[in-house]
Amino acid sequence: MSPLFQLFLLLITMAAAAELRPDFYSQTCPNAEFIVRDVMIKALIREPRSVASVMRLQFHDCLVNGCDASVLLDDTPTIPGEKQALSNINSLRSFEVIDEIKEALEKVCPGLVSCADIVIMAARDAVALTGGPDWKVRLGRLDSLSPWLEESNEIMPSPRSNASYLIDLFKKFNLSVEDLVALSGTHSIGKARCFSIMFRLYNQSGTGQPDPAIEPKYREKLNKLCPTNVDQNVTGDLDATPRVFDNQYFKDLVAGRGFLNSDQTLYTFKQTRNFVKLFSKDQSEFFKSLVSGMLKLGDLQNNQPGEIRSNCRVVNNRGIKSLTLGGYREWKRS
């Protein structure tokens, strides 16, 4: 692990999550959560897959230097954004839904609701609106002043990751094995690209053979979806009920029908298998563990200066005040 990565993990661990609270906008923007949910409902009607894509943003944001909306920043002429990271490019999508939410909030509560909080609220709504649990989110985050491309490339796991690697990664963020399995269950909705599974179908571990963990009939289905000459941006369902948030994902893993290697490995690996079995049989236990994991993930913070962006894709003019967790910091115009 690089010293830079260790430093960011330390900052995240040291940050005080106690400043986050469910009623953060109750006085300043009491309709904030209603506005977010209203836009998410419209997005779900317009394109069901979009809400799953929005939900993924919380993972790709919070694991990289805390939940600070850095993943939303566009490239600038001099600084590439996290959208160019290996795990994000040609993969993360539906940023326009966040834009729509921000625009609606700015009309009612200008300059008050952070993009980082929008991501957290929208991720929760993606789960709740598709049949999953609902919960009170803790709010009060600030938006980062820069992206973290290098850190994103170093931290975010690959679809090829195995359970052992994922356990070690999540442990660095004080997320348990149960948290890992429950949070992986967010793959209950949405799709993934053929790009992410070509090695599983045709060259698992460099053998020139398919992954033996794939159930044979399911492998035939995947071979038809993703032949060797396929456009690798073609997508497949992450589980058998991709528009409904339920525990079907875990039932599929037990049956050898996990789409991604990083999914199926949760059943083939001894340390995670029992949680997969539990969640496949008891949806209420999955939902309870998911809520706990999402709250822990959302609590990841850092001690970097921040602000409330007016546009989630770009930092504000540096001549205005930016915030830190300890108070205000005046930025001079360059």
From TrEMBL:
Cofactor(s) required for function per UniProt: Ca(2+); heme b
GO biological process: hydrogen peroxide catabolic process; response to oxidative stress
Catalytic residues, chain numbering: H60 (proton acceptor)
Sequence ranges assigned to domain Plant heme peroxidase family profile in this UniProt record: 19-316
Binding site for substrate: P157
The family this protein is said to belong to: Belongs to the peroxidase family. Ascorbate peroxidase subfamily. Belongs to the peroxidase family. Classical plant (class III) peroxidase subfamily.
Protein name: Peroxidase
Lineage: Eukaryota, Viridiplantae, Streptophyta, Embryophyta, Tracheophyta
